[in-house]
Amino acid sequence: xxxxxxxxxxxxxxxxxxxxxxxxxxxxxxxxxxxxxxxxxxxxxxxxxxxxxxxxxxxxxxxxxxxxxxxxxxxxxxxxxxxxxxxxxxxxxxxxxxxxxxxxxxxxxxxxxxxxxxxxxxxxxxxxxxxxxxxxxxxxxxxxxxxxxxxxxxxxxxxxxxxxxxxxxxxxxxxxxxxxxxxxxxxxxxxxxxxxxxxxxxxxxxxxxxxxxxxx
Length: 216
What we know:
6 strands; alpha+beta; disordered N terminus
């Protein structure tokens, strides 16, 4: 094993969560109540405040092999020793093996990074952002609600790809696939496909709504 490999591999406490996929740079609020995870969080708070989040498929109980490291940035202890905390996604990782499973899982993990881009990502990022704005505009029109994007979306294409992926709802399997991609171009292209399909569906519904509910 090379010195760089040793640096890139470490033991990490692991927190499996049903249908939750954490992405780098994205926040994850948690309510810790299970005894074993209270033990885990108390241990983590005495060290570097970092642990791994892994998605669990509730249908099969299967724990994903690729997850995202979370860092505790705020926490509050409740009277019965439960905890509320805010965590922030850091690096992605792959579990190489489980070191132990009691009282909580600890894995030997390797960090994952995207491959260096082979082309300028800005045009693709701009396309994804425009599709996202179209989807939000059509959703607001259909629901007659005031739905808005944050004033400042991430500028960097890679961070934008994580933002979009983290805001896909009800599709944890798709989110997991996006998390596992190590190519920003591929992730943005898949998000463009998802957003295009969603936009076209919403646009068709909007036409129907205008047809059957014309403005007086």
